[in-house]
Design a protein that fits this description.
By secondary structure, the chain is of the alpha+beta class. Helices cover 31% and strands 25% of the residues. Strands 1-2-3-4-5 form a five-stranded antiparallel sheet, with helices on both faces.
Amino acid sequence: MVLVLTGVAVIMGGVLAYVNHLTEEPINAQKQKTLNDGIKTVMMNDQVKVVKTDTTKQRDRGREYTFIIYLTQDQQGNDLGAAVESTTDGFGGDLKVLVGFDPKGNILGYTILETAETPGLGAKADKWFQKDNAKGSIIGKNPGEKPLDVKPVKGGVGDIDAITASTITTRAFLLAVNNAYKAYKVKPVDTHTGASQKGKEGKK
């Protein structure tokens, strides 16, 4: 019986390894396509090309986060700025965003790469901060001139309306964008301000 079980385990392990090998390449190709499409979206340019990729790491409350900076140009070789991957701790887990900046640091666009936020509340972040939402839009703003923060009525000092009933998610998102800007400009990420806090969405 022991030999039979061992044999079955070995065979199943081999099958799983083979299946993983077959699916690894298509999965990686899909991830790369998603990233390429995301860069085009946040840089507002379908012809954008990545000319250099930099990586920097920063620690926040004992956890290390990685920022990936994709420096971009157009087809004529003109600098367009950079798309930056940034991750923070949201309400439900990691919140990873891709933010596009022009050479001056103005925000061109963003997209959510990963989120575990509450459906219908924090999950609204993919739309809330776009240019068609005057109350919460971050498009065109420059975190270097004024860090992004929620309006004073929500306990902040900024001019961004928080997502309804999702202040924690909003703060986490804005922190991710602020840190993305600092990573792009090769400045240390401030790990002492704006960090998201755990709690129930209904108590924000």
